[in-house]
Amino acid sequence: MPAIIAVIIVIIFVVVKCESAFPTQNYYKKDVTNEEYKRVLDDCESAKNTAIDWELYKNPKNYSHAGHLGEYAKDTCFKEKGFIKGGKPSKYVEDINSNVNEIENPVLEENTELKDKVTTELNVRNDIAYSPNEEKPFTGRYETYYPNGNKKGVAYLRNGKFDGLMTLWDQDGQKNFERNFKNGIETPIKTHSKNNFGLFRTEAETVRNKLECPLSVDDDIVKEGSLYGGDLYGCILGTMQTVKWFINENANSNKVYNVKFLWNDWFIDRGYGKVHSDRQEAQRALDVIIKMYAPEKAKELNKTFFDTKNKTIVSDKFILKYTFDRGPAIDERMIVVTSK
Fold this sequence. Notes:
Helix content: 25-40%
Radius of gyration: 20 Å
Strand content: 25-35%
Shape: globular
Number of helices: 8
Number of domains: 3
């Protein structure tokens, strides 16, 4: 197995267990611009992650099947937007795809004794990381970057194993992942940063009561079901079950990592129910999002959620990232809430 593939597999296994079996895929479209490709890539990665989230909520720890569904969702998304797999890639597309499946965005706690030696490439042998052409396990800081130059991830290693804080960002610079390691083993994150969410269980109880979810919190919590290492709370609403609310727990912390609210908005009747099924439930859930996380942004969020343009809205205590993804019959409208 080529060295870079080994690195990708090891890092992605740490970030998202069910993605480790999938090699990089390239997608092409004649005369596509860099900006268009980046936009479509972001949309299709979002579709992939949503598919994985949903499958793991229904079938906890079924990582392999969830991974396949995620890859299928990504392939379908690219196909719907006029792209095909295979062919001769441009240098830009090669760079984008090689980076997409690397470590997502680690921002590291300053581990002073490990920060002096830096590498952007690692080879993995028997679960131990080495610098290229080195026989001694790597000790130092590992960094990766997006094609636009923004930092994608930072992690510290000691004797070839993760040791310290790993943090990941998206291409816009928003932190979307953090885990702490000691000698290769994940440990609770010690942080003095403020988290504006309530505790995971408290947040789940509040949401359950406000949404009037049909099941109890205990029935709707999937132990270690979150892609971020902790538990996952999910509430499914609507006659057609198209309104979904997830709360991801940060691993071993009882703290909320993020909140996801999405509506699978049918715009074509395929015989499963009427067009725009569960719109009232979606509006009710949106009202809860607004009241809990951004009451001062009510007008803007109501307009944005039913629009087709991606947008990030910042309230007093939270960041709300709205994404729109058009499928062959369903529009996915999603808001991801993170603490400032």
